[in-house]
Specification:
Blueprint lengths: L10 H14 L1 H9 L11 H11 L4 H15 L4 H6 L2 H6 L4 H16 L12 H9 L6 H10 L12 H11 L7 H8 L6 H11 L11
Helix pairs in contact: 1-2, 3-7, 3-9, 8-9, 10-12
Catalytic activity: Hydrolysis of alkylated DNA, releasing 3-methyladenine, 3-methylguanine, 7-methylguanine and 7-methyladenine
Protein name: DNA-3-methyladenine glycosylase II
InterPro entries: Alkylbase_DNA_Glycosylase/TA, DNA_glycosylase, HhH-GPD_domain
């Protein structure tokens, strides 16, 4: 049986995590009651989530959302086969950069060659999932961590490269002063072993959920 760290967060886990965080951290003590009854929404389609992570790279949230909408409209469905069928002309028409198109075609080919769903990863720990994903061209650590969080629902992921999370830590813990990754890791020590829940609460409080997770 996989360890607890490999299991997706359940509603029961979420309640336990919120109680733990409220005991350990003054900011979490304030945030957890504000979002009672809410929890991280998992994305059932892991491929689509990875595509979104590539789309979001190096773009503002607004620009990424617009590109994502155009891409989904062009594909019909964000499936590996549909991605492989997207022509250069269609990609150009929706203003999908050629480099990202190459990354997405490689990713689609990987999923077609080795079909994957959430159960494929249940015996794979977080570091190994990140390693496998980062071996794919165009997937950065941030995208791999988003996959762990929003597809696999892993409980203890600290997406230290996420700008919105760093800004939230700055606002909540440092009165808006700039924070380093080292500062963020120090804050997050109190979040163990539920860093994913704490990060979600920070994002939720900032209205800054990654990858358009707060979009309709």
């Amino acid at each position: 049986m996989p360890g607890i760290s490999n299991k997706p967060l359940s509603a029961e886990d979420w309640a336990v995590a919120c109680k733990h965080l409220a005991r350990k951290d003054r900011v979490m003590r304030r945030l957890t009651p504000l979002y009672a009854g809410e929890m991280l929404r998992r994305e059932a389609d892991g491929f689509a989530l990875l595509v979104r992570s590539v789309v979001w790279q190096q773009l503002s949230d607004h620009s990424a959302r617009q590109l994502w909408k155009r891409l989904v409209a062009a594909l019909g469905s964000a499936s590996p086969k549909a991605m492989l069928a997207l022509t250069d002309e269609a990609a150009k028409a929706i203003r999908l950069p050629q480099r990202k198109l190459g990354y997405l075609r490689d990713l689609a080919a990987w999923f077609v060659q080795e079909p994957k769903d959430a159960l494929s990863w249940v015996h794979v720990d977080d570091d190994a999932v990140i390693e496998q994903l980062m071996a794919q061209r165009g997937l950065a650590r941030w995208g791999a961590e988003m996959f762990l969080l929003f597809h696999l629902g892993r409980p203890n992921v600290l997406a230290i490269d996420d700008a919105a999370l760093l800004q939230g830590i700055s606002d909540h813990y440092f009165s808006g002063e700039a924070v380093s990754r080292s500062d963020a890791r120090e804050v997050a020590q109190a979040w163990q072993p539920w860093a994913s829940v704490a990060a979600w609460l920070i994002w939720r409080s900032q209205n800054a959920m990654p990858l358009g997770q707060d979009a309709d």
